[in-house]
Amino acid sequence: MLSLEKGKYTHETLLPGITWIYDGINDSIYVDESDEAAFVIDTGMRDESLVDYIRRNITDKPLTLVITHGHLDHTMRVSEFDCFYMSAKDDFLVPEKAHADFSKRIDIHERDVIRIPGLDLVVVDSAGHTPGSVSLLDRKHKAVFHGDAFSNGANVWMQLPGCSDLSVYRQSILKAIDTMREFGVDDSWIFPGGHYEQKYGFPDPKYQPNEPGLLLMEQMAELCRKLIDREIEGEFMPEMDRFGDRVYSARYEKAWMLYTLKQVK
Ligand SMILES: [Zn+2]
């Protein structure tokens, strides 16, 4: 079991070819390898070098960085890489302290295929949490890297600046499910997400292991519909009220979301 120890990188093998790195601040990074090269998916937000950690502990193969979305906890270490793949729609979210050079950002779009020797990732639009959120399909290892798009076992944060209305999010999820199925995604695939809770949960009983997948995506779309149609109401979360709007929490089956009332349309 991956250590929850604060303040350092740790890692474990998720399956042969995919290593999960945890940055000690609740952020997940993945190294997805072929025999000749490797993708790095997201960067976490530690102060010390991610590339040094990968070189010392995981692989010396050439590294290609792909970013699921522009939040700091996924982009903080982009400047360590020669270039990075990310949707340009999320450029505005990347904070200055990531020191991102956008002349080295390669824009990605729905159904793009990002190739390295022996492996590729199919891009699937997954907007909602951010406008440029993507899922990345690794058809060889049967893995969907989805950042924060569909939750990481706990709540998906839809209350942040830049998150969409729930109707837009719902349509995005339903379209992503169709595209994923078209590319062969089914219940046998794993869905490594951007944080920690999905596999092991947290000591707090609210955060039990809750692996994302197509079922959770369907239930998240249904949660959006139920909120829009006023079939369910969320619970006010005063401790989450950091961005000027009251934040609510709502659940349906495996799906769990934080949102604000102005997004319920
Ligand atoms: Zn995020």
Q: Mind explaining what this structure looks like?
A:
This protein is an alpha/beta fold. It has a single domain (10-154, 176-216), classed as 4-Layer Sandwich (Metallo-beta-lactamase, Chain A), CATH 3.60.15. 18% of the residues lie in helices and 24% in strands. The chain is built from five helices and 15 strands. The strands form three sheets. It has a seven-stranded mixed β-sheet with strand order 1-2-3-4-5-6-7, with no helix packed on it. A four-stranded antiparallel β-sheet has the order 8-9-10-11. Strands 12-15-14-13 form a four-stranded mixed β-sheet, with helices on one face. A hairpin with a 5-residue loop joins β2 and β3. α3 packs antiparallel against α5 (214-228). The radius of gyration is 17 Å and the shape is globular. The model has no long low-confidence stretch (mean pLDDT 93). It binds zinc ion.
